[in-house]
Amino acid sequence: MLYHLHEFKNAMAHPMRMMSEAAMEIFRHPFMPVSYTHYGRSMAASAELVNRALKHYAKPEFGLHTTFVDGLEVAVEEEIVLSHRFCNLLHFKRDTERNDPKVLIVAPLSGHYATLLRGTVQELLPEHDVYITDWLNARNVPAAAGPFGLDGYIDYVINFMEMLGPDVHVLAVCQPGVPVMAAVALMAEDNRRRQPRTMTLMGGPMDTRVSPTEVNLYAKKNDIHWFEKNVTATVPYYYPGFMRRVYPGFMQLGGFISMNLDRHVDAHKKMFQHLIEGDGDSAAAHREFYDEYLAVMDLPAEFYLETVKTVFMDHALPKGEMISHGRKVNTHAIKTTALMTVEGERDDITGTGQTHAAHDFCPNIPDNKRIKYTQEGVGHYGIFNGRRWRDEIVPTLSKFIRDNA
Known about the structure:
- By secondary structure, the chain is of the alpha/beta class.
- The protein has two domains: 1-56; 66-219 and 299-403, Alpha/Beta hydrolase fold, catalytic domain (Rossmann fold), CATH 3.40.50.
- The protein has twelve helices and 14 strands.
- The protein has a nine-stranded mixed beta sheet, sandwiched between helices. Strands 8-9-10 form a three-stranded antiparallel beta sheet.
């Protein structure tokens, strides 16, 4: 019923979207005198904001076709090197002979597409051989493919690291922190040859008992059965994943927006003003950000529920109680993989100290193979996108990777 109500709302909004598009065309047409007036620009700006509020945002493209290596522009080809039911492993193949460190970016499976990490990939490309997990929208995965839970996620991460070889460096952004560490711990305990050289955890909820945020507290308000009943839904018949249980992306997006509603309202007010003033660059930057931010995907319900319970309710990994395929995850087994944790000073999603806490339950990693890095002046997204990421975090991360290569 939840999904059907959402789709019904979208259908009801369709005429309004068409009307807003027509209004944008009329009030911006160069042959219409009104388009050169303050009234015309105001009407066009209003129509665009209405249209953007009602439209459906499809999965964006990475759009990374070139990068600079040794000061020269080289072509970048995006290729799928491994395909699973719920995830593709993408490689950004650079047209260069340089043998740079392999970096596996494990993107979060938390509502947004992997393209949210476009800036992360872009800034790593000049000096690294970059791969990323491109998670698929669960509503497009047929129910016959079976369930996908936290164990399946860990299995995928192990499979990707095994395929990329013993010289890979794994980078987990936000949500993947716990399953990535679990995967590395299981590989270490089995003494597998292809353990990653380094593991970097960025803004990950490694121990949410530390400085709990609004997100963490929300997960503790109700038991897991409440979440299963109230925030999961069945995919309707007109999608390939018909009958699959999912945590809908629109539910996650609503939660994200409600956390910072004033900030989003203010951003749209500024865009309205930019459009009236003819500030095309600022308006374009707004569109680019929200085209990405508002594009969401559904998560397999079992993965979402198991993550909420394991990470946010039971705190299983830091307590040494996490189980994968009936086997206890022993983080003390990690000895050869270097560990770097990155936090944002103003992070309101992953509280201060939650990511750095990972060092506490990996006591057997040598001190000279550890880094705790806190970036001043940034929130959650600023640790993997933007100026501070490019100018301050990337150089530190690159040095850490090369020092342990």
